[in-house]
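Subject: design request, 487 residues
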């Protein structure tokens, strides 16, 4: 029987009961992770190791993080085998693990408790002043910025981020203070497990409709997330996003304390005078007092992310504004978030994880502004998920259209099976419709993408690779080809 999500039950499609009590971390025993090399899974495993728990895990691929986890004390395997989990007292999995996974079947056959990754993370967050960062776009960067801001204020917070902080070279840390900052993923409904003292919602937009069915159900899920904020806690939302504005209105009606930020003049924290380049400066007005926020990363979207972090740190956790601003100024970025990869032949290469329409729009607009009058913007985009490509090809095409040249790869399937009639060609066609005359190429062969990109770029161009899949490998290959041409 298929469960259909609705506004009254937005989590009907979930394989987990995210309303169930979360076990205490010290009662988990030996914890075994399925797909331990994933960004979220490896972070939870790292914190458990830092807490002194016994950890093991398997992954389908021999990714670099496995060696790092092994050095930190975990036992790891490449490939899945029922024997790997034989000593586990608790098994942790993500939504990407299929029910027929041999280790999952063996664990269930032994009657071992199986937790979703978010439930395991929530167990670690128990007893802390928890901050959960949710939203369709900007979660990883905002979580990272808040972590660095709190460190600038003299704290040593625990954190779990969906990407690696450039400053620290890790995605997670077991801190010595009582604050715990976590990225809260809404894609599978698991973001309702954390019960935060402070919740940030960067935006509420249609996404993950393979799980939620429609935008009304997405909004209902965020309402449940807000209802999990602890009494006297704080909801921080963006006043520039229609979905977040409506969420704030509904939250206030239920008695939740709300603090808003944005360029909108009605925000509690108002941004203005934004000056952009490879770094950026923005003015913040907070309760009549004005501050200057300097950032080492570009883009209006990053100014908003930083404002969210400031609001949570100052108004949610009571930190000093000057120390928080100094911490934010030291933020150097997150891996795969507008990450410079190098330069060759006069071409600068940058990589970004953007994969939904809002993220793609923000990163392409930022990059287009940086090259205006100096060169061209060449974008290589890899659609992520067949369902998202089917549902949002038009919006993705519009987001890519400010570029001068666009190369669209085929769909990165991730956890999904192919859908007939859905390919990267849908996005390429949408780019052409959004901006007639733009140079757009659909390149379905992965091995041909870097070669085609290297032939298209010229000195002064910015090459931006975009997507959540293995498009991240294209930039270094283009740099290699360009180096060969100039040597």
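Subject: RE: design request

Done. Sequence follows.
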């Amino acid at each position: 029987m298929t469960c259909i999500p609705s506004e009254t039950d937005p989590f009907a499609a979930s394989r987990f009961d995210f309303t169930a009590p979360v076990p205490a971390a010290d009662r988990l025993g030996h914890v075994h992770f399925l797909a331990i090399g994933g960004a979220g899974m490896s972070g939870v495993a790292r914190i458990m190791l830092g807490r002194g728990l016994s950890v093991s895990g398997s992954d389908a691929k021999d990714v670099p993080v496995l060696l790092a986890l092994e050095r930190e004390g975990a036992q790891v395997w490449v490939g899945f085998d029922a024997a790997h989990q034989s000593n586990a007292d608790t098994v942790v999995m993500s939504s990407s693990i299929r029910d027929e996974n041999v280790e999952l079947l063996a664990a269930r056959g032994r009657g071992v408790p199986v937790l979703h990754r978010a439930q395991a993370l929530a167990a670690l967050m128990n007893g802390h002043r928890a901050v959960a960062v949710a939203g369709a776009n900007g979660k990883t960067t905002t979580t990272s910025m808040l972590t660095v801001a709190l460190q600038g204020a003299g704290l040593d917070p625990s954190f779990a981020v969906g990407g690696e902080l450039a400053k620290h070279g890790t995605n997670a840390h077991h801190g010595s203070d009582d604050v715990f900052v976590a990225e809260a993923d809404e894609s599978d409904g698991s973001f309702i497990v954390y019960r935060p003292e402070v919740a940030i919602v960067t935006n509420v937009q249609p996404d993950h409709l393979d799980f939620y069915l429609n935008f009304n159900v997405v909004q209902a899920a965020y309402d449940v997330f807000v209802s999990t904020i602890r009494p006297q806690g704080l909801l921080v939302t963006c006043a520039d996003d229609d979905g977040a504005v409506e969420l704030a209105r509904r939250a206030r009606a239920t008695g939740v304390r709300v603090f808003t930020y944005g360029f909108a003049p009605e925000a509690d924290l108002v941004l203005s005078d934004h000056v952009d380049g490879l770094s950026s400066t923005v003015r913040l007005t907070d309760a009549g007092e004005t501050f200057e926020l300097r950032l080492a990363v570009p883009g209006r979207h990053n100014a908003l992310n930083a404002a969210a972090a400031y609001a949570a740190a100052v108004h949610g956790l009571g930190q000093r504004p000057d120390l928080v601003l100094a911490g934010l100024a030291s933020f150097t970025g997150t891996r795969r978030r507008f990450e410079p990869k190098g330069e060759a032949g006069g071409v600068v290469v940058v990589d970004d994880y953007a994969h939904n329409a809002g993220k793609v729009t923000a990163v392409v607009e930022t990059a287009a502004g940086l090259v205006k009058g100096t060169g061209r913007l060449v974008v290589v985009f890899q659609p992520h998920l067949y369902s998202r490509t089917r549902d949002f090809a038009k919006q993705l095409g519009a987001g890519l259209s400010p570029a001068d040249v666009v190369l669209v790869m085929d769909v990165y399937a991730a956890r999904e099976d192919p859908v007939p009639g859905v390919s990267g060609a849908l996005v390429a066609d949408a780019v052409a419709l959004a901006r007639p005359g733009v140079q757009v190429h659909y390149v379905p062969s992965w091995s041909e993408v870097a070669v085609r990109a290297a032939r298209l770029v010229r000195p002064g161009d910015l090459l931006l690779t975009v997507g959540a899949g293995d498009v991240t490998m294209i930039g270094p290959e283009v740099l290699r080809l360009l180096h060969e041409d100039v040597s």
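The domain at 127-329 is CATH 3.40.1190.10 (UDP-N-acetylmuramoyl-L-alanine:D-glutamate ligase).
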